[in-house]
Amino acid sequence: MAPPRNGRSSRRWSAKTAARRGRNVALLLDLQGPKVRTGAHRDGQPLTLTPGQELTITTRSVLGTAQQIATTYQHLPADVQPGDQILLADGTIRLVVLAVEPEAVRTRGRTWRPAARASGDQRARACPLLASPHPQG
Asked: Which residues contact 41 (CB under 8 A, 6 or more apart)?
C-alpha cells in the first residue's frame, strides 16, 4: 500500500506500518521556506539578469529596476549575511549576498539558466530562505 500524500495521514500510515512490522520508521519532511515575493517593475516588463550583475533587494516599496528590486519579506536583511546564497525562481537564479543594510541586501548574480528572468509578477516568484527564524503568515 502506497503512503498517502498529506502530512497527517502520512504520519498515521507510518505509525501503523511501523507497529504492524515491529520496526521503527523515520520520516523525512521537505518543508518550504518563507514565501518571498518581488515587487512590480518600473516598466512592467520582466527583468533580465546577467551573471556577475549586482542586484539590491530592498524591503522598501520601490518599483524594480535592473539594479534594485523590492521584496515583501521584511525580515530579509536580518536573515542573511555576507556570503549567504539567495535562490529565486525555483533556484534558476542564484545570488550571493555581498552586504546587508537595515532595509536592503546587496547581492551579485552567481548563476542563471540562460532563460532565467526575475518577473514583476506578484503571483509567481518565491525566494526560499533556509532556516529562517521568522514565521510566515
From this structure: 47, 63, 64, 65, 69, 120
